[in-house]
Amino acid sequence: MAQSASYYLQQAEICGRDAAATSLHNQRATLLRSQAAWLDLAAREIKIQAARADRKAGPAKETTVAR
């Protein structure tokens, strides 16, 4: 099952908060990379949802215009 964009954004927020709280350079770098990955997943999910909505609305728009 696909996760929602809000879940991905929550995970990114957690990674960002943890990165800010740590004093270890390597751990901070890892958390910031994780944050970037979560943000990328969120952006992809938002893009997929928008494309899905366009596909659903597309045939309905053409049908109403053709009449």
Describe the protein in words.
The protein is mainly α. It has one domain (5-66). The protein is 88% helix and 0% strand. It contains two helices and no strands. Helix 1 (5-21) packs antiparallel against helix 2. The longest helix has 42 residues, at 25-66. The chain is rod-shaped, with a radius of gyration of 18 Å. The relative contact order is 0.13. The model has no long low-confidence stretch (mean pLDDT 90).
Helical proportion, percent range: over 70%
Rg for CA atoms: 18 Å
- Beta content comes to under 5%
Q: What is the number of strand segments?
A: 0
Supply the number of structural domains: 1
* Cα end-to-end separation: 38 Å
Shape: rod-shaped
User: Count the helices. How many?
Assistant: 2
Average pLDDT reading: 90
Low-confidence stretches: none
Secondary structure class reads mainly alpha
Which sheet architecture does the biggest sheet show?
none
N-to-C order of helices and strands: HH
Condensed summary:
The protein is mostly helical. Helix content is 88%, strand content 0%. It has one domain.
Which SSEs are present, and which pair or pack?
Blueprint: H1 5-21, H2 25-66
Helix pairs in contact: 1-2
Defining traits:
67 residues; mainly alpha; 2 helices
